[in-house]
Amino acid sequence: MTAEDADVLIDTSKPHPARVYDWLLGGKDNYLVDQEMGEKLPPEARANAARNRAFMHRAAAWLADNGVRQFLDIGTGIPTAPNLHQIVQAIAPECRVVYADNDPIVLRHAEALLVSSPEGATDYVQADVRRPAAILDHARELLDFDRPIALSLIALMHFITDDEDPYGLTRTLVDALPSGSYLVLSHGTTDEHPELANSVTDTYKKGQVPLRMRRRDEVERFFEGLELVDPGLVTATHWYKETPAPKAELSGFYVAVARVP
Hints:
- It is a single chain.
- By secondary structure, this protein is of the alpha/beta class.
- Helix content is 34%, strand content 16%.
- The chain is built from nine helices and nine strands.
- Strands 1, 2, 3, 4, 5, 6, 7, 8 and 9 form a nine-stranded mixed sheet that branches.
- Helix 1 (17-24) packs across helix 2 and helix 3 packs parallel to helix 4.
- The chain is globular and about 45 Å long.
- InterPro entries: SAM-dependent_MTases_sf, SAM_dep_MeTrfase_SAV2177_type.
C-alpha cells in the first residue's frame, strides 16, 4: 500500500466525503466536523447511502459470478464490511482488488482491514481520481490489463465539478480497460427528491465540499460507447439480477453496470 504523498496529513478542520459517507452508514471512523455535516443533511441521506451500498454489493457479486476476477475501486471510502474484496473473494477467492481514495484516513484503515484471501490479492493507493494516470500506473502493478477489469466509481463523480471534466476523467479510465471489462457507477441525484436539492447542495457548500448532483441524462453520458447491462440506468433499488428484488424505494442515486465492447 502506497500514498501519493507520504507527508499528507488528515485534515480535521473540514469535512471529507469519505468520512461523511462513513457516518451516514453508521460508521465510527469520522470526526466531529463530518458528523456535523451529516446531521445537517436531510434524513433521507442515510437511507440513500445504505441503498447505494447495497447496489455495490449486488453489482460486485454479479460480476464475480459472471467471471470477472479483477476490480479497480476508486473512491473506496473508509472500509465498511463487507468490503468489495470480501464480496467477490467469497465467490472467487483468487480475485484481485485495487482500492484508491484521496483521504489519508482511508489508508490507515485499509492497512488493517483490507486483507485479502490467501488465493487472491488486495492493494491500496492513496490517490485522487483527478489524476487517473497515477491510479492506472499503480493498478498495473497488481492487475493484468490484458484481462477484464471491473472499474468501480461508487458515489464519487458527483464530487467532481463540471470544470474538472468528470466525463473526460471517466473516459481516460475506461479507455485503459480491455474489451470485456465493466464500468460500475453510482451517482448522486435529486431527481426523485427535488424538494431536497437546495438543502443538500447548501450543506455541502457550507462544508467546503464541491457537489454536483446530476440529472438522469447527465449521468447517462458517463456510459457513452458502452453496453449497458440490464436493467440499464436506474435508481439504486431497481438494479438487481439473480437476487430477489430489493424493496422499491425513492433513491438519491442513479446506478448502472456497463460492458466495455
